[in-house]
Each structure stands twice: as structure tokens, then as C-alpha cells.
TrEMBL record:
PANTHER family: EGF-LIKE DOMAIN-CONTAINING PROTEIN, PTHR32256. InterPro entries: 6-blade_b-propeller_TolB-like, LRP1-like_beta_prop, SrfA-induced_signal. Residues 69-350 form the Prolow-density lipoprotein receptor-related protein 1-like beta-propeller domain. Pfam families: DUF5050. Residues 1-25 form the signal peptide. Keywords: Signal. The lineage of its organism: Bacteria, Bacillati, Bacillota, Clostridia, Eubacteriales. This is DUF5050 domain-containing protein.
């Protein structure tokens, strides 16, 4: 048991680890298992009743994925993905290499020497992006760490890998030598790595971020250079062109019939809009920016009936329900991203000098150790 706990402690040295609890619950007993001058890592036996409702039905019922990761985890750089009782993750303490562990924090196992982002897990396979020497690689490996293969490589920076059914979609860059310019496009592969070509090429004078595939549609945040950042929707088979859903957006999650997003403008809010563009409505004030606002993953992740986000202005983690009620501050935290894995929120926190800072564990919505 001690070995399992130590394994979990070493893993969590790369994360901020806190659970969402009832503010009136009795404090849990905390044991310090491992620490250095840089990290103070604590582990607490969790009360599953306190955590009830955070784990998705899919995770609790051991259902094999047909979609490689959640919308929320993907826009937070896909560093964690869950299938059944296992979490697959990029280990910050070991060069961002690919690991897996039980969702209760036990049995941490290295799967590959590759660094890994935009992790997707479907059935027996893990798909992910590796960056090395100014090149991007799309790799796949079995969930036991065997049969690793490179499916695709490019000189450009590939991002936001989405595995949906039997296809792989990603956001990439290309160049038009005749026009002497770069362009962005959504591209597709089959799961064996055969190219299926471009799904959509974006117009010149635009840039893209936070691409998601949900139910046969692609969703993308597009900056049109001169217009505010816009959330667009388009069909993967090309039958429907771009539909504008919302503007002034900083980031978004697509969950069911709704898109939850943060705004980036004169007024900063958390909002939601239907996937057909109807019923756009404010939920609460807030600006879910990354550590330095620009260039970082925007910190917004929706699970069940709750929206979790970090407000950039006061550097704190909040939750609010999907109807905009019961807003609660969870912790002061300069999080760089928010991922949801099993019962927990994982939030890497960086120091003000852009290095990995100390990590913290939160219980009962309070910081208990620094």
C-alpha cells in the first residue's frame, strides 16, 4: 500500500491536486508522504460520498471510449485522458512522457519515452502528439505500452488532436508556395495513418485555436484579424459551411447541446449558447485566462452539472453550475490549465518566473499546504 501511495505522490508532484467537497464536511486527515524544497506533496484518503457527482457516468460504468477525450480536456492541451478506470497522462516530472495510472491515484506506469500532448484513448489504443526538433509526430501506442507506431509527421506545429470513431482530426499548418503564405487547416487521417486530406482550409488572414470534434461536427475558435474571436461550427463531411455561433470568445467547451465559453472583450463573462447558435446567455462574470492571459491554455472545463474555471484577474479557481448559479471559489491558484481526471481536478501551477512552481493540494476548498 505504501508503494502505491508513494507512486501516486511522485506522479502528483507535477500537478496541483484538489477535490471538490462540501464546505460543511469534516476535514479529512492528511499525511505528508513526499516532498522537496520545490514540491510539497500530500495524499489523503478520499471520501467518495463527498466526491459523488463529479465522475461522469461513462467513467463509473467502465464504458470504452468512442471519442478520444473530452472537449474540456482537449482545449486544456489534452494532457490527461480517461477510459474506464485508467487515466493516461503527460508526466511533467519526467519530461512530459506518456504514463498511465488508476483514476484513484495508484499504479503509476510509464508507457513511452515520448513526450505527449493532445492525448486520446479509444479502445486498446492511445493516440497523441509528440514534438521533437521542430517537428510534430502523431503516434499511437497500445494501452499496455506495446506496438508504438508513428502515423504522421510534419515540419509544422500540429495541435488539438481529436480521435472520433475511426478517424483522426487535427489542426495544422500548410504553405502555398505560389502565394508565399501560410494557411491553417483541419486535416484527417484514418486510424492507420492514411491521409484523408483537408477537411477545411481556413481563409488567409486568420488563425485558429481550440479545435474540437463533437457528433460529426467540427468546432473552432477563429481570429479573423480585425474581427473578434469567433466560435464556428462546420460539418466534417463538407455538407455544411461555417456557421457563426458566438463572438468575443476566449475558449470554449462543447457539452451535449450547449457550448460553454468565456468572453474576451470589454466585458468578461462565462456564457453558454446552443450548438445551433440560439439562446446565447450570460452565466456569470469571469475571465478564464491562462497564467499570463495570452498564449496559455484557457482554463475552462465542464463536467456533469458544473463549470470549473480559473479567473485570470484574481488567479483563483471557481466552480459555477451550468445554469449560472452556486458560484463558489475553490482555491487561490495560478493554474496554467485545468483537466478533469476521475474524481479530481488537476491544475499545473507555474511560478512567476515561468518555471514550474510549487504544487498544492486543496481539500474542502482550502489551501492546506504550500
Amino acid at each position: 500500500m505504501l508503494k502505491k501511495r508513494l507512486s501516486f505522490a511522485i506522479f502528483t508532484a507535477s500537478i496541483i491536486f484538489f477535490t471538490v467537497c462540501d464546505t460543511h464536511a469534516a476535514p479529512l486527515q492528511v499525511k505528508r508522504l513526499w516532498g522537496t524544497d520545490r514540491h510539497q506533496i500530500l495524499y489523503t484518503e478520499t471520501d467518495k460520498e463527498i466526491l459523488k457527482g463529479l465522475v461522469s457516468d461513462k467513467q463509473s460504468k467502465n464504458i470504452v471510449n468512442t471519442v478520444g477525450n473530452t472537449s474540456g480536456n482537449t482545449v486544456n492541451y489534452g494532457r490527461y485522458a480517461v477510459q474506464e478506470k485508467w487515466a493516461y497522462y503527460s508526466n511533467f516530472d519526467d519530461g512530459n512522457k506518456l504514463y498511465k495510472m488508476k483514476t484513484d491515484g495508484t499504479e503509476s506506469i510509464k508507457l513511452s519515452e515520448d513526450n505527449a500532448e493532445f492525448i486520446n484513448v479509444v479502445g486498446d489504443w492511445i493516440y497523441y502528439v509528440t514534438y521533437q526538433k521542430n517537428k510534430s509526430y502523431i503516434n499511437k501506442i497500445k494501452i499496455d505500452g506495446s506496438s508504438r507506431v508513428t502515423l504522421f509527421s510534419a515540419q509544422s506545429y500540429l495541435r488539438f488532436l481529436n480521435v472520433y470513431k475511426d478517424k483522426i482530426y487535427y489542426l495544422g499548418q500548410g504553405s502555398n508556395s505560389e502565394a508565399n503564405n501560410w494557411y491553417y487547416s483541419v486535416n484527417a487521417l484514418n486510424i492507420n495513418g492514411d491521409s484523408l486530406g483537408e477537411v477545411y482550409r481556413f481563409p488567409r488572414n486568420s488563425s485558429q485555436a481550440y479545435f474540437n470534434v463533437v457528433a460529426n461536427y467540427g468546432y473552432c475558435l477563429v481570429n479573423e484579424y480585425g474581427n473578434k474571436d469567433i466560435i464556428y461550427k462546420f460539418s466534417l463531411d463538407g455538407s455544411e459551411q461555417f456557421t457563426r455561433l458566438a463572438q468575443n470568445a476566449l475558449t470554449f467547451n462543447v457539452v451535449g447541446d450547449w457550448i460553454y465559453y468565456g468572453t474576451n472583450g470589454r466585458i468578461n463573462e462565462i456564457r453558454k449558447v446552443k450548438i445551433d447558435g440560439a439562446e446565447d446567455q450570460k452565466l456569470t462574470d469571469g475571465f478564464p485566462g491562462g497564467l499570463h492571459q495570452w498564449g496559455d491554455a484557457s482554463c475552462l472545463n465542464v463536467e456533469g452539472n458544473w463549470i470549473y474555471y480559473k479567473d485570470w484577474y484574481d488567479q483563483a479557481i471557481y466552480k459555477v453550475d451550468v445554469n449560472g448559479n452556486n458560484k463558489t471559489k475553490l482555491a487561490d491558484c495560478a493554474a496554467e490549465s485545468i483537466s478533469i481526471v476521475g474524481d479530481y481536478l488537476y491544475c499545473p501551477e507555474y511560478g512567476i518566473d515561468n518555471t514550474h512552481g510549487e504544487f498544492y493540494e486543496y481539500k474542502n476548498m482550502k489551501k492546506i499546504k504550500k
